[in-house]
Amino acid sequence: MGIRPPLKDMLIDNHNRTINYLRLAVTDRCNLRCNYCMPEEGIDFSNNHKLFTIDELSKLSAILVSQGIDKIRITGGEPFVRKDLMVLLRNLSKMNGLNEISITTNATLIGPYIDELKELGITNINVSMDAINRSTFEKITRRDYYDTVHDNILRLITEGFKVRINFIALDGQNTEDILPMLELAKHYDVCVRYLEEMPFNGGSRKFDSIVWDYKRILEHIKEVYPDYKKIPSHETSTSINYKIPGFKGTFGVIPSFSRTFCGSCNRLRITATGDVITCLYAQACMNIRDILRSDASEEKIRVQILKAIGSRSKTGFEAQQEYQGIFRNSMTSIGG
C-alpha cells in the first residue's frame, strides 16, 4: 500500500484554528433505523463503487496525517457493517504520527472484534445508545438489538476500554431515560454524554428548534443530583463534563444544536463517498474521492484539503445559512 511516514505540516483554517482531528466515515449504511436519523424505510444508500475502498481510506488518512491530523475517529453509518473495517484499523494502527484512533458505533456488531481492537490499542469507543429501557430503545431504533448492545457495552467497560455513551435527548421519546442511563456512570467507569437533537434526519421532517437543550438537561439532572461538579475538559472538547460524588464514572452535555464550542473547533469530516465537510452544519465544500482516484499527485490532494480548510465558516450558525428549509441529509450519510 505504501503508506509513508508523515511530514507533519499543520492545518490552520481561516480563523486561525488548528485542525488536527479527522472524523472519517467508512460507510453510509447502518443496521438500525433510528427515527431521528432517517425515515423508517431508510435512505438511498450509496452504491459500493462510490464508497472509498480500504486502500483509498488508508492512503487518504496517510496524506492527512502528513498535514498534521493526529487523531482519527472512524464513523459511519455503522462502521462495523463493513466486513473489511479491521484491515483499515490495522493500517491506521501502524501509521507514524497518528496518536489516537477511536470509533463511534452502535455496538451491535462490535463483539467479535473487541479482542483485536484491544491488541491494536484502539480503546476509545463511543457508543450511540439513546435509551436504557428496552421498549424505548426498540421504538427509537426500530430494531431488536437491546441485549447485544447492552452486553457489548458492559464487555467493553470491563475489559478496560474508555467508553463514552452518546444519548440524544429526544422530546417525547426518551427523556424519562436520562436519569436511569446515568446509573451506568454510578456503577461503571464510563462517561454518559447527553446530546441535543440535531436536524439531520434525512429530510423526514422540519426542524427549527429543540425543547431539551443542554441547559434543560443539566437542570433535570440537578433535581436529583444537585451536588455534581464541573470537571476540566480539553479546550477543543465539544462536551462539558461533570462528576457526581460517589459515582465511578462521569457525565457530560454536548450543545450540538446550541453550538457553544465553535470557537475551538478542530474537526474535519470526510464522508464515505469523499465529501469534505468543514462544519457539521455546512454543506460539502468539495469531493476528494475522484481526485484520489485520478492520476493527481498527493501534493494536489494536499492543496485541495488546504483550500477547504481555508474557507471554513466561523460558526455552525454561519454555515447553516447555506441551507434552505429542511436539512435533506441524514447523520448516517454525513458521518457523525
Order of helices and strands: EHEHEHEHHEHEHEEEEEEHHHH
Strand content: 15-25%
Number of strands: 12
CATH topological fold name: TIM Barrel
Look at the structure and name the CATH superfamily: Aldolase class I
Query: What structural category arises from helix and sheet content?
Result: alpha/beta
What value does the Rg take, in angstroms? 19 Å
Q: What is the tally of helical segments?
A: 11
Look at the structure and give the CATH class.
Alpha Beta
Distance between the termini: 27 Å
Most strands sheet: 12 strands, mixed
Going by CATH, the architecture would be Alpha-Beta Barrel
How much helix, percentage-wise, in residues? Answer: 25-40%
Q: What does the secondary structure layout of this molecule look like, with pairings?
A:
Blueprint: E1 21-25, H1 54-66, E2 71-75, H2 85-93, E3 100-105, H3 114-120, E4 124-128, H4 134-141, H5 146-158, E5 162-169, H6 178-187, E6 191-196, H7 214-222, E7 229-230, E8 240-243, E9 250-254, E10 267-270, E11 275-277, E12 286-287, H8 289-293, H9 298-309, H10 316-320, H11 331-334
Parallel strand pairs: 1-2, 1-10, 2-3, 3-4, 4-5, 5-6, 6-9
Antiparallel strand pairs: 7-8, 8-9, 10-11, 11-12
Helix pairs in contact: 1-2
Explain what you see.
Helix content is 28%, strand content 16%. The model is unreliable at 1-7 (pLDDT under 50). It is built from eleven helices and twelve strands. It has helices at 54-66, 85-93, 114-120, 134-141, 146-158, 178-187, 214-222, 289-293, 298-309, 316-320, 331-334, and strands at 21-25, 71-75, 100-105, 124-128, 162-169, 191-196, 229-230, 240-243, 250-254, 267-270, 275-277, 286-287. It has a single domain, classed as Aldolase class I (TIM Barrel), CATH 3.20.20. The protein has 336 residues and is an alpha/beta fold. The longest helix has 13 residues, at 54-66. It has a twelve-stranded mixed beta sheet with strand order 7-8-9-6-5-4-3-2-1-10-11-12.
